[in-house]
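so my prof wants the structure for this chain in the tokens format not the other one, which i didnt know existed until like an hour ago. anyway here's the sequence
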Amino acid sequence: MDVEIAERLRSLRTAQSLTIDQLAERSGVSRAMISRVERGEASPTAQLLSRLCTALGETLSAFFAFGRTSGDPLSRRGDQPLWRDPETGYERRAVSPAGTVSRVEVVEVAFPPGGRAAFPPETAKEGMTQHIWLFAGMLEMTVAGTTHRLQAGDCLFMSITEGHVFHNPGEATAHYAVILDRGRS
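here's what i got, hopefully its the right format
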């Protein structure tokens, strides 16, 4: 996956005719780290990737949709890309079939106990929303300064353009779905 992330990042950067220095300035990520990620020598965290995606005008979900252009309406579990954040252990599975015209995307997440990931407001385009539907465990979601404590079965709706923090205060893995609406084109 690190090689695919490296290729995708380099491809997005070069498609916009950006140098590594320019991307570093836009994203606040060091030139050295961007270079290491693009060479496949470093596994980026979700927060770092989010900052790079924002600087490139890309959402994290769209970033992970790379290479998924089948258009087949069926997405088999064995074919769904799985990515693991090296810092938090957060596992993200892109569940939705690739290449469809739907503006909705479904992501499955396993978030380890004690994990915390913060996403600043600038990580998504205006109009994007998501539902966080918790299947098992506990999850604290802080959205625009308000903390919501979710338990199994709870569902939280939010705008992605507001800053948000995922935190698992429990002793078990939080297992949940993110249902992302990219908004109107």
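also thought this was worth mentioning. Residues 2-64 form a domain with the 434 Repressor (Amino-terminal Domain) fold (CATH 1.10.260.40).
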